[in-house]
Design goal:
Shape: elongated
Low-confidence stretches: 267-325
Number of helices: 9
Distance between the termini: 81 Å
Radius of gyration: 37 Å
Helix content: 25-40%
Number of strands: 9
Largest sheet: 3 strands, antiparallel
Strand order of the largest sheet: 3-4-5
Strand content: 5-15%
Structural class: alpha+beta
Length: 360
């Protein structure tokens, strides 16, 4: 305590040796050995059959023996019938104790009728009040844990690197996305420039881009960010002028959907149909569809068959060729019933209950 140390040979050692029949000279030689070697194992003149008498809860620093878990449990089981409460006695386990050994200790304590049991594995805490060596058994492992896994390192980009610059506009708010690339073409940093230098939005976007860049350099997959930030909704939102991403629900939505379409394999940049296509490939032309009427729904194949059309609708088309309302994932929810609305002019309409967001 307080940084001081005191080293003594347990006084019961001499008493135990005397009761075992050792004379004074033998006891002194054994005590000197314990003080010097910090273990009684291998002491001169000590009968090996007497070693269990001197086993302790902790393994000696230079020894191999200690009281086993069952030794603690059986001693408590012998005393439990004579007391009404539980026993506060720690079952000490070595640092290399396995999960199965700890599980066995709990089960044996239950079988022995103990009301409580406390297990402690040496070195599992950063510091412990009792130890048999000058080195804290938990210090080395704690330092390694604080340092983190050794394989997580920052992979910086070279001083000269290729980059991609993309100009965008969301509801009239223009900006530029700069993406720095590794040698293999993977993105390693992003910069977002919007508004005037020194403005609030410029500072926020710059700080956000720096955080994303550091995460990418430490190995966080870009797809994780694309899945997390796509379809986030806040102003400004609206049309973009980009045919591949005609509408964005926010600047973050546009930013990460564009990054996904450019650098994440099979990531869709289409707003309407969630079809996958390689980055840089033009979207496939949409199939012509009949103009749906309000409230029109696609009948199930079983219902069509029961109407006697052999899987075809009343106009002679297969059910798979019918197109109802195209529900967009960025459409607002109905304020009345919570269903996803569909575009209705410049507003939205709920096809479930008929509520509109402003247009008749």
């Amino acid at each position: 305590m307080g940084g001081g140390t005191i080293k003594i040979v347990n006084n019961t050692v001499d008493e135990a040796l005397q009761r075992l029949g050792y004379d004074e000279s033998q006891r002194k030689a054994i005590a000197d050995y314990v003080d010097r070697e910090e273990t009684i194992e291998g002491a001169p003149g000590l009968d090996c059959a007497h070693l269990p008498v001197f086993d302790c809860a902790f393994r000696a620093a230079n020894g191999t023996r200690s009281i086993s878990a069952m030794g603690h449990i059986r001693m408590m089981a012998a005393a439990q019938p004579f007391i009404s409460g539980a026993i506060s006695k720690t079952v000490n386990q070595p640092a290399d104790a396995s999960v199965e050994e700890l599980e066995t200790a709990y089960m044996e304590a239950w079988k022995a009728g103990l009301k409580a049991i406390a297990l402690y594995r040496e070195g599992c805490k950063r510091t412990q009040p009792v130890t048999t060596s000058k080195t804290d058994p938990g210090a080395q492992r704690t330092a390694a844990q604080l340092a983190g896994p050794p394989n997580i390192v920052r992979r910086k980009l070279p001083d000269e690197r290729r980059s991609v610059t993309h100009k965008f506009s969301v509801a009239g708010h223009e900006g530029y996305i700069h993406v720095g690339l590794y040698e293999n073409g993977e993105p390693g940093e992003i910069f977002v420039r919007m508004a005037k230098e020194g403005s609030t939005i410029s500072g926020l976007m710059d700080s956000f881009a720096t955080a994303i860049s550091l995460a990418l350099q430490y190995g966080v997959p870009l797809k994780l960010f694309v899945d997390k930030f796509s379809r986030t909704r806040f102003e400004p939102s609206g049309f973009t002028g980009n045919p591949a991403l005609p509408r964005a629900s926010s600047i973050m939505d546009y930013l990460f959907r564009w990054l996904g379409s450019k650098f994440v394999r099979n990531e869709s940049a289409q707003e309407d149909l969630g079809e996958s296509r390689p980055a840089g490939e033009a979207p496939a032309p949409a199939k012509p569809a009949a103009t749906p009427t309000v409230g029109a729904e696609t009948a199930s194949p079983s219902a069509e068959s029961s109407n006697g059309h052999n899987g075809k609708n009343g106009n002679g088309h297969n059910g798979s060729e019918m197109y109802g309302f195209l529900v967009r994932s960025d459409a607002p929810t109905c304020p009345e019933c919570g269903s996803i609305t569909v575009p209705n002019g410049s507003c939205h309409k709920c096809i479930n209950c008929g509520t509109t967001t402003g247009c008749s």
